[in-house]
Design goal:
heterotetramer, A: Glutaconate Coenzyme A-transferase, 15 strands, B: alpha/beta, 8-stranded mixed sheet, 6 helices
């Protein structure tokens, strides 16, 4: 079973040289720490950064330089700053090659829910609805089951949707899965996790074709 | 073309109960601190506020919320504010949550004389309720309308007497498009300079969009998430 | 009868302190030379200037600094430069208080034609269609009659339209007129020009109410 | 993220007969001189060119026109080019004339993932033929669709290896929005610099919109109307 860092590391393997990538808050943010050596990837932050760098050294925090998670950050060489309309022009216009974000639920059709629990929690969708409606390549980073032990990979989402038929891949603590016609196709198992266990933890239709390799992290 | 007003009091003149006001800023970054404080002092009520976020409990728009001066919020993300969540769930506060990109574009459209546009964001979600859906290139889009406001209040780094503005870092965010969309746009700046002091080639908001400008007395510029690397 | 400079001077009287103004090619451009003393007016050029200044001194022409008529110009102190999308955001968004442009024909309803003579001349509309569709205050600067002696102030335009019901005022070599319900309302006569002459030169309905004063230039 | 190509030949690789190409520039100001010359040499034909103007008889896009390489022009103003008028009136050249603001916004929309928007420009004129009309705030608007291109070719003053661009003066014009709307965007610059040499706060076109960049060999920068004050 993977921890959060393991999930981030596995997602980092999906990066390709020359890509612009938008990382959501939480586990997705960690992906930036595991870019394969020698690979050039630029991170976009939807509040107006292209070429986002590491956290600042202590004492060098700048209130005017934050990421979409409101964390203080720095810029890499060759970075560019812009306003929110231009930022979402990049996103909506499909200039970003990969979006990684968290989810509360994903359906076997690729629907995603991650912004609202009616009557309980409403933080808002932020940029997530624009991202999932536009990105050609969306990877969800999340736990396979919730705290109550219920699957988050469902036939149908029960929570208000963020977007429909948009998720391409899911990386959880248990598995890597791909959305295909008919359901979640199992691509890889986490180290030490059986196909049976993944099947048990997946409420939506799980498609198991051939031998399922173990992830290499 | 001199748009300089004497102080924040003069800047907010004419803002009345029930008006719609846009506020620049993302989280606490690039918010018009001085104008928000003056609106708290002025006590105007029943405001409809268009702002990406709602501040935190004790800073930014959170100050107006706590003071019950806001009737309705139009935002994309309000996760950092418990008082907000309380007022919303209790029904005291009307809330219209819209995708961040649609919010930015709707403000820009309002300033640019584009009454409506199609976007894929929100299709198939509750954001699309009651909105026209149309397929372009095989993909469903929804029709979003423009947003304008009685007043837009923005915060810039530098500004000149004509209202030309330059923002700094990620404090730019929503400020430029909201500056475009206000019937009256108020700009508060950290540094007010003479016309000619800003390079015309690097102005983020041309002065035509700004009706009033002043240098704020002080800026706290609070950091929401202080993340650092230890040396 | 006014010459071109007279028309420009008369239009300059319509300027108000603090206005942003877009001037079309030809006579409208001349208006910039007659801004009343002490009045602050900024000129916008739709190719990306706010605060357009005079022509450059000889030898200081800059190929990268032209106006919408492709003439070399300079910037005034406090000018701003921007791209075409932002320029027309200013125009379409009604941030410009006055537009002055030329016309081939104007109708008594305020329609304007100035971009095409079918089969003969097609230069294109440039920014004129955006300007006339958006501006709240449009003044047309033109000759009252064409070279063949035919009126250009018509019941209906015969040429392809640039915009409908948009012109507010017209200043010609003969008169100042306002578009009102029912036709062209005569406001002022050019020095030495009779109401009868203006009437004869106006094909559209001319509304003459009370004494018509002579212009003061 | 290094997008530097060796020379103009490498830059225009892949441009084929029948393609749609956007060209930045207003009149002869801010046009990609080196790429236009290379396209003339390459002899690609049947191009659909999206450009505010069509150059003059012997410079700018006029060179491609004279060479009969252009099948269709999408422009707002073509008044400075006799050969253009001749080809158009004789029916050799297809022409789609559209309002300048709509052209700018349609390119921006193409780059920004907005398939269509409403504008008042052109209502009641032949530009509106076949287009949906809708009333907003009591005023009729027409629905305009976005424009994209197989290639967009823009010209900037300075650019870095990542494709970040800065324009100079009024040579900015259509370049930024066309840079957004090309499937492949080629930027030719007067001065190519290293990443980090441009201030991130004052970049006009972020590198994400640019796929290829090179420093042009030379720039004539011809002036169309040399207007001066005598000393």
């Amino acid at each position: 079973m993977l921890d959060k860092i393991g999930i981030a590391k596995r997602i980092a393997q999906e990066l390709r040289d020359g890509w612009y990538v938008n990382l959501g808050i939480g586990i997705p943010t960690l992906v930036a720490n595991y870019v394969p050596a020698g690979m050039k990837v630029e991170f976009q932050s939807e509040n107006g950064i292209l070429g986002m760098g590491a956290f600042p050294w202590e004492g060098e925090e700048d209130a005017d330089m934050i990421n979409a998670g409101k964390q203080t950050v720095t810029l890499k060489k060759g970075a560019a700053l812009f306003d929110s309309a231009n930022s979402f022009a990049m996103i909506r216009g499909q200039h970003i090659q990969l979006t990684v974000l968290g989810a509360m639920e994903v359906s076997e059709k690729g629907d995603i829910a991650n912004w609202k629990i009616p009557g309980k929690m409403v933080k808002g969708m932020g940029g997530a609805m624009d991202l999932v409606a536009s990105a050609e390549n969306i990877i969800v980073a999340m736990m396979h089951v919730n705290k109550a032990g219920e699957s988050k990979l469902l036939k149908e989402c029960t929570l208000p949707l963020t977007g429909t038929r948009c998720v391409k891949k899911i990386v959880t603590e248990l598995a890597v899965l791909e959305i295909v016609e008919g359901g979640f196709r199992l691509l890889e198992r986490a180290p030490g996790i059986s196909v049976e266990h993944i099947d048990k933890c997946t409420e939506g239709n799980l498609i198991i074709a051939g031998e399922i390799p173990e992830m290499k992290i | 073309m001199n748009k300089v007003v004497h102080d924040v009091q003069e800047a907010i003149q004419g803002i009345e109960n029930g008006m719609t006001i846009m506020f620049g800023g993302f989280g606490l970054c690039g918010i018009p601190e001085n104008c928000i404080a003056a609106l708290v002092r002025a006590g105007v009520r029943d405001l409809t506020c268009i702002s990406n976020n709602a501040g935190v409990d004790d800073f930014g728009l959170g100050l107006l919320l706590k003071n019950k001066q806001i009737k309705k919020m139009i935002s994309s993300y309000v996760g950092e504010n418990d008082e907000f969540e309380r007022q919303m769930l209790s029904g005291e506060l009307e809330v219209d949550l819209i995708p961040q990109g649609s919010l930015a574009e709707r403000c820009r459209a309002g300033g640019a004389g584009i009454p409506a546009f199609f976007t894929p964001a929100g299709y198939g979600t509750e954001v699309a309720h009651g909105k026209e859906v149309r397929i372009f290139n095989g993909k469903p889009h929804i029709l979003e309308s423009s947003l304008t406001a009685d007043f837009a209040i923005v915060k810039a780094w530098k500004g000149d007497h004509f209202g030309n503005l330059i923002y700094k870092g990620t404090a730019r965010n929503f400020n430029p498009m909201m500056a475009m969309a206000g019937k009256i746009t108020i700009a508060e700046v950290e540094i007010l300079v003479e016309p000619g002091d800003l390079d015309p080639n690097f102005i983020h908001t041309p002065g035509i969009f700004v009706q009033r400008i002043f240098q704020g007395e002080k800026y706290e510029k609070r950091i929401e998430q202080r993340t650092i690397r230890k040396r």
